[in-house]
Amino acid sequence: MPHQELVEQATASVLEENKRQAAGEWRLDYHITAPAFWINDPNGFCYYNGEYHLFYQHHPYSVKWDNMHWGHIKSRDLTHWEDLPVALAPSEPYDKDGCFSGSAIEKDGRLYLFYTGNIWTGPDPDTDLKQSQCLAISDDGITFTKYEHNPVISEAPEGNIDPAHFRDPKVWEEDGMYYCILGSKSRENTGQALLYKSSDLLNWEYISIVAKGTGNMGYMWECPDLITVNGQDMIVMSPQGVRPEGDLYHNLHQAVYLPGKLEADKENFQFEQFKLLDYGFDYYAPQTTLDAEGRRLMVGWMAMWESPMPEEKEQWTGAMTLPRELWMEKGRLYSFPVQELEALRQKQVSYNNVHIHNALQLDGINGKTLELRLTIDAKRAGHFGLSFRGDDDGTEKTTWSYDVGQQKAVLDRSSAGEGPGGVRKAEVPLQDGLMDICLYIDNSSVEIFMQHGAASMTARIYPKFTSTAIMFFSDEPAELVKVEKWELKPSITTRL
Ligand code: FRU
Questions:
Q1: What is the pLDDT of residues 248-288, one digit of tens each?
Q2: What is the residue extent of each domain of the chain?
Q3: Is 124 an annotated catalytic residue?
């Protein structure tokens, strides 16, 4: 079937399912999901003709990962999003088993999508695959035509490179030249990234294995992105197979950044270590873009491979995090949801200088789709925090707490409701005895930003619809210097 018909069929499938669905209790109000069925990685995040476009890995026929398409949604303000028809469907011999992850770039008014064409060559999905890099072009940002000479990079280069795992092109322009970084692994199962260049986006020349892991840095690097934030070069990528170390790396796979330096000849990216981008449970495959104001923005998949996803029973699976702005401060990467989200605020409730000892609830501070900003003075407390999405008798709840002795934040979803439990920790110091935290709670998710974005923790949680209680606690007297809460309006309103 021709590509355009496959895309229309996929769009119709998602649309019909969306119409059939009752409004699910866990459906997110202000986070991107597909109108129905499965999504994973963000793809093609870009600013094009005055609008933000976000594409995503999508299976438009079921709630499980399967033959990958690219779904599509756009926004003028990174806050209110409007669905668009499915953009890419597997249709050609070179992408017949999936249009895998990739990126978007504008050239001469046209939008170019780079993606990985996937082919299964046998029964084992770890070894029996052929991947190549492909291109689709659009004049209107909605309908995409696959390039007639695809693939533009037909196979992995020679060298210590596993030829099977060769994917996720991220393309950018610099000084009149285009560059493409790709996810790869060595023949000894070490994650690495490959770099290419092109003068026209059509013909690509291999440069080098630009970065390669050592030690516990994973067996495969997925979705690499090479960016500069406030003068600091870094690779953002998602390594598979990093082993837990102390409180770190307890998710199946991680999303990290490697601060370093890309040499002028672009052959080598020097780095020493990597750091997590988020310390929660559900954060993977983030992608960044630059917008017209020069902001570096990042969106991640708010889920984790092989983690149970109870929203399946509502006929949708997976979501995107809020768009976060990135910046460097005192050698640390910060991330915080974009300011435009303030447009969703309504019904503010605030308090100042409230003392907490043991447990405390505040009138009007509760809910399931809200933004909550707190400044807490720890005073002499050794352990303080709050629980949210709690039920009446306190058996169901999700808890964020802070251990002053260890200088660690702890997110505990063991009693959060349905779905997987567990605890995650993040090291983040108090500042002058104060902890500033911001929580974005949606119907089945929470994103927590500490110390103005110095660390974040993201999780999917599946409480009862009626669990809306928020409770503050502290082992010794502490002070809520400031509490501000807003209900947040739904913003993903236009379903196709
Ligand atoms: C990352 C990833 C990518 C791949 C895509 C397939 O989550 O595994 O490497 O392109 O998902 O859906």
A1: 999 999 999 999 999 999 999 999 999 999 999 999 999 99
A2: 3-329, 340-493
A3: no
